[in-house]
Specification:
Elements (H helix, E strand, L loop, with lengths): L1 H21 L1 H14 L6 H14 L2 H29 L3 H13 L5 H5 L9 H4 L7 E3 L6 H12 L6 H14 L9 H9 L5 H14 L3 H10 L4 H25 L4 H27 L3 H9 L7 H13 L7 H7 L3 H16 L3 H5 L11 E3 L3 H17 L3 H8 L17 H22 L1 H29 L4 H7 L1
Antiparallel strand pairs: 1-2
Helix pairs in contact: 4-22, 4-23, 10-11, 11-12, 12-13, 13-14, 14-15, 16-18, 22-23
């Protein structure tokens, strides 16, 4: 019975949402009709005349106070929106509307449902449904302790933005914790550790968790943030793999015993996949390429710039040493050359930003921990690690240079960071109301006349419609409806 009632409520909600989406005009006319029918009992005419008398009695001081207050409020909203955007990288109003208002109106948030599949490669089938043009955790991100901190020690600058680190903190809490962690002391400590902003506090909490039990996520945190070399990080990740594999096997046997065990199994799967991916990155950093490739093959990864451009490089390697644009234009492209050119075209179509970094037309920087798929940040992450591979293959960069510009006449600049709509809106609103406040203060009588004329013009269409309705419908319609 409960399921039937829930299903009926969901169906009713979907019908209401559909009606508001497609039949809003019908609803609008129905409301107008009801207003007309109820104008006598609700005394709408009397209220309108009262409002008209009220507007006529307003003094210029009222308009000065009104516009000044509106300007102040819109200015405060603008300052708050700008501060929130600089700190968190998004609009507060936009975030609230998407997170809280959109679900009430029947919207679906793909980020919440698919976020668990976007960073660690634990479910390839779910990943295919996720939009490619979104923020993903960089699968080739550097180690904070062994690599990012080295940059900080040398230059005294932070290599990661606050926004990037905030996204990483959200990822850690999503993938490395679950609701039942409070039942196990070590996991409860790590749940608090992932929420800590201070790196030293996180490291101390990880050591505290390891004193209680062999905790895979504690080893992960120490490998990422405390280890100062890749060799130390690999050693800690191997310990994490041993602990994580044991937790995964136990949770796999209990996953069907309830939602709590299912959540634990999902978390343990995410932890195990993350450890294997980072071990593969350690092997690659230490020069054990074959071992890294073997480990990466066990992890399902979605289509990316790395896959597309690596496939293009493998095809270009067979023909790049003897490729000549002049000779190709005279005799035409061979089958192998055509395959290489088409592979480069496919790669450039997937991410057109990469060639400029590989050809060193744009400067490289440290890759971030998060990238925008098919964007400039993904191009940086790819070129940072693979530029040396392209240079090692003779003629590969020459073939890329001769080929990539023919893919597009104009290379896209997406993603271009723009201010959120609500910041621009509040800025315009603040400027407009400030101008009105200034004009009202300088010319109060003139602005009062303008305000009254504006309001009368605004209500003119409504008055015109009401007059037409009264001329068409009989005067006794309300009495007939009350009888029915």
């Amino acid at each position: 019975m409960a399921e039937a009632a829930t299903g009926f409520l969901e169906q009713l909600k979907s019908c209401i949402v559909w009606s508001w989406t497609y039949l809003w005009t019908v609803w609008f006319f129905i409301v107008l009709f009801l207003v007309y029918i109820l104008r006598v009992p609700l005394k709408i005419n009397d209220n309108l005349s009262t409002v008209s008398m009220f507007l006529n009695t307003l003094t210029p001081k009222f308009y000065v106070a009104l516009t000044g207050t509106s300007s102040l409020i819109s200015g405060l909203i603008l300052i708050f929106e700008w501060w929130y955007f600089r700190k968190y990288g998004t609009s507060f109003i936009e975030q609230v509307s998407v997170s809280h208002l959109r679900p009430l109106l029947g919207g679906v948030d793909n980020n919440s449902s698919n976020n668990s599949n976007s960073s660690n490669g634990d479910s390839d089938s779910n990943r295919q449904s996720v939009s490619e043009c979104k923020v993903w955790r960089n699968p080739l991100n550097l180690f904070r302790g062994a690599e990012y901190n080295r940059y900080t020690w040398v230059t005294g600058r932070e290599p990661l933005t606050y926004y990037d680190m905030n996204l990483s903190a959200q990822d850690h809490q999503t993938f490395f914790t679950c609701d039942s962690d409070h039942l196990r002391p070590a996991d409860a400590i790590m749940q608090k550790a992932w929420r800590e902003r201070n790196p030293q506090a996180r490291i101390s909490a990880a050591h505290e968790a390891l004193e209680i039990n062999e905790c895979a996520t504690a080893y992960i945190l120490l490998a990422e943030e405390e280890a100062t070399t890749i060799a130390e990080a690999e050693k800690l990740f191997k310990q994490a793999l041993k602990a994580g594999d044991g937790c995964y096997r136990r949770s796999q046997q209990l996953q069907h015993h309830g939602s709590q065990y299912e959540a634990q199994h999902r978390r343990d799967t995410n932890v195990l996949v993350y450890i294997k991916r980072r071990l593969a990155m350690c092997a690659r950093r230490l020069g054990r390429t074959r071992e890294a490739v073997k480990m990466m093959r066990d992890i399902s990864l979605p289509k990316s710039a790395t896959i597309c451009y690596t496939a293009a490089l493998l095809k270009a390697r067979a023909v790049s040493d003897k490729f000549s644009p002049e000779a190709a234009s005279r005799r035409g492209l061979s089958t192998a050359e055509m395959n290489a050119v088409e592979a480069i075209h496919r790669a450039v179509e997937f991410n057109p930003h990469v060639p400029k970094y590989l050809l060193e037309m744009k400067s490289l920087i440290l890759p971030p921990e998060h990238i925008l798929k098919r964007g400039d940040s993904e191009a940086i992450a790819y070129a940072f690690f693979h530029l040396a591979h392209w240079k090692r293959v003779e003629g590969a960069l020459n073939l890329l240079h001769c080929t990539w510009e023919g893919t597009f006449h104009e290379v896209s600049v997406y993603p271009k960071k723009e201010l959120p709509f609500f910041i621009l809106f509040t800025a315009g609103l603040c400027s407009f109301t400030a101008m009105l406040a200034l004009l009202t203060h300088q010319f109060p009588e003139l602005m009062g006349v303008f305000a009254k004329a504006f309001l009368s013009t605004l209500f003119a269409p409504l008055n015109f419609v009401m007059e037409k309705v009264e001329s068409v419908l009989p005067s006794s319609l309300w009495h007939q409806l009350t009888r029915i």
